[in-house]
Amino acid sequence: MTCPLCGARKARRACPALGRDICPVCCGTKRLVEIRCPADCAYLVTSREHPAGIVKKQQEHDLSLLVHLMRDFNDRQAQLLLDVTTFLAKYRPEGLENVLDADVADAAAALAATFETASRGLIYDHRPASPPAERLAARLREIVSATAPPHGSTAFERETAAVLRRIESTVRELSAREPGGGRPFLDLLERVTRGQQADSPAAPNEPPGPRLIVP
């Protein structure tokens, strides 16, 4: 029997989620991504207990980078970083627009410049050059504003700018290692989110949606 998902390989694994047999490749690559696997699926349990070496190495690398990302931050900055990266992990613009790492870096840079200017007592709204980055910057500003003290403060503005500059520099460093105008940083956030959702199923009353939790 041919796998109903790829239509190319032999279906050799019974999938309890689909009620059909699928091929091992689709089982491994679409698990918890396109297939809503039950917690007691034998293949899911095995993959969690004995992850492939390359997958485990990637997970460790991703988490170490996120931990390094928040180095030297105080509690307020660390929480803001988690709020922003959680938002970026699930951000999907309207229509057919695609957001790349370059847009994230430009949006973070413009917003950081705005807060740096404000910390010096000046009000000036720095704006990114591209429309996708500008729209993303507007959404990020909403995230940041939700954590701001009622009347603002110079310390908050400086700390927020530092978080945004850290995001900008990290994104640009990753892009330099993987040139081509892609999404290495955004893909990293999505991998971490997906892995944590797989390891920690949502409680019955917990709202859906990804949430980054960095140890």
Textual characterization of the structure:
- The protein has 215 residues and is mainly α.
- It has helices at residues 24-30, 42-49, 53-69, 75-90, 101-119, 131-145, 154-177, 184-199, and strands spanning 13-15, 20-22.
- The protein has a two-stranded antiparallel ribbon.
Instruction: Please provide the count of β strands.
Output: 2
Low-confidence stretches: 206-210
Total domains: 2
Q: On the 0-100 scale, what is the average pLDDT?
A: 85
User: How far apart lie the N and C ends?
Assistant: 44 Å
Strand order of the largest sheet: 1-2
Give the SSE order as H and E letters.
EEHHHHHHHH
Structural class: mainly alpha
Radius of gyration: 20 Å
Shape: elongated
Helix content: 55-70%
Total helical elements: 8
- Strand proportion, as a percent range, falls in under 5%
Question: Main sheet, how many strands, which sense, barrel?
Answer: 2 strands, antiparallel
Give a quick rundown of the structure:
By secondary structure, the chain is mostly helical. The protein has helices at 24-30, 42-49, 53-69, 75-90, 101-119, 131-145, 154-177, 184-199; strands at residues 13-15, 20-22. A two-stranded antiparallel sheet has the order 1-2.
